[in-house]
Amino acid sequence: MSAQCPHSMELVAHKAKIESLEKEIENLKACRNSKILEPAKQINRLAEIAKVNADFLLQDKARRAGFIKAIHTTATLIGYAVIILALLVAGKFTGTLKFFVKFITSLCVK
Q: Where are the coiled-coil regions (predicted)?
């Protein structure tokens, strides 16, 4: 049997503990960095999703605004057409009324 010094055995045990603790610290740092990177990736992913959703909402809003503008233009044109027709009908009515008045006056004057 080889005789070993108890002090050297304690030193080896302490060195092994120190090495294992250093390894654990490195592992914790690596985990922490990966855990920090993981939320950063999630934040980037969420930002991309938010951007896509915002683009979709803006396109939808623009589409609806275009539809509303088209409805407004159509309603305006229909309104003008109704006004023009009403004026034409009124003009024909006044023209007819004018002709009727002339006819009545021509009968009465003779």
A: 11-38
pLDDT tens digits, the chain, 110 residues: what are they? 445 666 666 777 778 888 887 888 887 777 666 666 677 777 888 888 888 888 888 888 888 888 888 888 999 999 999 999 998 888 888 888 788 788 888 877 65
| Domain locations along the chain | 6-109
Residue of 62, 65, 83, 84 whose CA lies nearest to 73: 65
Q: Torsion angle, CA of 11/16/18/21, rounded to 10 degrees? A: -160
Q: CA of 29: how far to CAs of 17, 42, 47, in Å?
A: 18, 20, 27
Q: Enter the tokens of residue 31.
A: 């985990």
